[in-house]
Amino acid sequence: MSQSSILPRRIRRLNRKVGTLLNRPGRDSGKLDGSAVLAAYARWAPVYDLVFSGPLYWGRRAAVKHVNALSGHVL
Fold first, then answer.
1. Contacts of 37 (CB under 8 A, 6+ apart)
2. How far is 74 from 24, CA to CA, in rounded Å?
3. What is the Cβ-side half-sphere exposure of residue 71, based on CA atoms within 13 angstroms?
4. Cα-Cα-Cα-Cα dihedral sign, residues 31, 33, 15, 51
5. pLDDT, tens digit, for every residue of 6-23?
6. How far apart, in whole angstroms, are the C-alpha atoms of residue 44 and residue 7?
7. Per-residue pLDDT tens over the stretch 10-59
8. End-to-end distance of the chain based on CA atoms, in angstroms?
9. Taking Cα atoms as reference points, which of 69, 71, 47 lies closest to residue 61?
10. Which helix (H) or strand (E) holds 8?
11. Which branch of life, at top level (predicted)?
12. How many CB atoms lie within 10 A of CB 11?
């Protein structure tokens, strides 16, 4: 199955935009491998919320509580 049939259109558009930014002429390609970044986004995008929602839950709650105490409410 091809990558384009697996990934939603929004992720494919993001991959193209990131690829364009990373592969601009004059950019030192030795510092960051654009294809590796695109592959990482493609690999993690479908499962990111599932994998990271639990570990980040308490940190998000603490940040919202702090902001609410400072200036109002976070939606």
1. 18, 22
2. 38
3. 5
4. negative
5. 567 777 787 777 777 666
6. 11
7. 777 877 777 776 666 665 555 677 888 888 888 888 898 888 888 889 98
8. 40
9. 69
10. none
11. Bacteria
12. 15
